[in-house]
RNA sequence: UGGGGCGUGGCCAAGCGGUUAAGGCACCGGGUUUUGAUCCCGGCAUCCCCAGGUUCGAAUCCUGGCGCCCCAGCCA
């Protein structure tokens, strides 16, 4: 993980902020993370959270959590609470209470009145289609709305009546009066307020039938909160002139500065709220926290740690370039954290019974095994050893591929933490399938190297009499192509049908019996696993977070 | 074809007129190892989208191309 001696990795935004601080433009940095509560947070939000909160934290400033709740149709409190949970889980604290853009609706309304009074906003009666026609195209200028030059007094009266609920949805809007011929379409008299009757807003209830748009709400909310640097993604770059326009023409207490960075694109996943919502709604996954989802909740259930996610965000950096980050980046971050912190355990995923013919029937040997190979402070636990064991089917081969160093007929292998054994006999059923192995131990090899030969293979095992049966869920990428939905196809066609494999008869070493949901372990030679909340006292359920790096399994078995 | 951005190795990304063009991920060797893990050592861009130009000197400045992304919601 990040070495304390190593300087904080920087990026162009941090450089701008530090320069502003150094120049005295601001004496304290204030940022904000502004999610719309219309879905769960995903890995892309984690990048923004890490940037906004991380920047404020490291520079002694403040980062506000502000819900951008201007479109009550799609928002709800479940999402508000889930978002708070996720931000906290990532390890960040926001300044004061969580805020809502809706906290400012009254002030925002007042600012709109200010614009009207200056002749900078007007009530327009064009409907949506007409407005589109009047807006022009990318290459042709728009035409002024017939309502553009209404007298101030009339606009004031109409706007008040809009608020009073006198007009139906869609019949009027309040528009900024900027420039219908602007090459930047966002400046062609954008809508500031629209009418929405009959929606119960999760914060303001039925107090309003008038809702401000993002373009109006965002800059003014930033200014109200004294945000110094308002960080957003590249698609808002075109909106910056409008952002600045709003702040300049209204009696707001500060002048925030918007800076844009590129959003994260992670291979083999989708990170668009629309698509994630569909995956959940259409049942392609089990919910927002399905371990295959790139949501924070999904990654948490998958076994990712806040540390790994934050480290990942540090590693990918913050720039304005289009990017497509490889999964390997994310996986490397979680492996680094878990390698250092996850206690080791033995778990047999696909059991094959082994009977040790020269080991006493009811003798149980308790072997002490270190919980971590290079961190003694993690202690040790006892593992029972007996005559009957389970090993993984993949660790035995009747006809081994070249280079195989596990168990083969007549061959020897080291049982991790225990003896070296030799496979003496292969027992098959009527169908010819291997059902059991009969083997013998070399009693002189417990904690010692065998004499006169070297045994290169080491495999894990579990004593049959003491094994804890469990379910293990192996997850793979949700999509089978790096860019789902590329080339205009439906991203749903790229869903990987084998993204989940459930193993129902796994055998775990007994110390895993009482593991609690959320606990993480390394199953030696397999990977990192976390206890799923679906676990019961009788039957634990583990999710594979990520496998171990495997330089053998790549081209072989 | 209007406007706004971006273009450094397979991926991410430093670089801010003088560096042998950081670092991470991935990959390829080699060593240690009772996890084919970890760890350690080594390799991996004579070149920075292309072409001109300025300069003693350019990935960094200028000009012209080319490529890619975003914008015509009363979404954010």
Question: Could you give the topology of this structure?
Answer:
Layout lengths: L11 H11 L7 E4 L9 H16 L3 E6 L9 H13 L9 E2 L4 H13 L3 E4 L3 H8 L16 H12 L9 E4 L14 E5 L14 E3 L1 H12 L3 E5 L6 H9 L8 E5 L11 H9 L14 H7 L3 H11 L10 H15 L2 E2 L1 E2 L2 E6 L8 E6 L9 E6 L2 E5 L19 E4 L4 E9 L5 E9 L15 E2 L1 E3 L4 E8 L24 E9 L11 E4 L3 E5 L9 E7 L10
Parallel strand pairs: 1-2, 2-3, 8-9, 10-23, 12-18, 16-19, 21-25
Antiparallel strand pairs: 4-5, 5-6, 6-7, 11-22, 12-15, 13-14, 15-20, 16-17, 17-18, 21-22, 23-24, 24-25
This protein binds one RNA strand of 76 nucleotides through α5, β6, α7, α11 and α12.
Task: Report on the architecture of this protein.
Its EC number is 6.1.1.18. It is found in: Cytoplasm. Residues 458-532 form the tRNA synthetases class I (E and Q) anti-codon binding domain. The protein has 2 domains: 23-261, HUPs (Rossmann fold), CATH 3.40.50; 344-547, Ribosomal Protein L25, Chain P, CATH 2.40.240.10. Helix 2 (43-58) packs across helix 11, helix 7 (214-225) crosses helix 8 and helix 11 (306-316) packs across helix 12. It starts with 11 loop residues before the first helix and ends in a 10-residue tail after the last strand. The strands form 6 sheets. The chain has a 7-stranded mixed beta sheet. A hairpin with a 5-residue loop joins strand 17 (420-428) and strand 18 (434-442). The protein has 12 helices and 25 strands. By secondary structure, the chain is an alpha/beta fold. The radius of gyration is 31 Å and the shape is elongated. The chain has helices spanning 12-22, 43-58, 77-89, 105-117, 128-135, 152-163, 214-225, 240-248, 273-281, 296-302, 306-316, 327-341, and strands at residues 30-33, 62-67, 99-100, 121-124, 173-176, 191-195, 210-212, 229-233, 257-261, 344-345, 347-348, 351-356, 365-370, 380-385, 388-392, 412-415, 420-428, 434-442, 458-459, 461-463, 468-475, 500-508, 520-523, 527-531, 541-547. The longest helix is centred in the first third of the chain and has 16 residues, at 43-58. Residues 1-5 have low confidence and may be disordered.
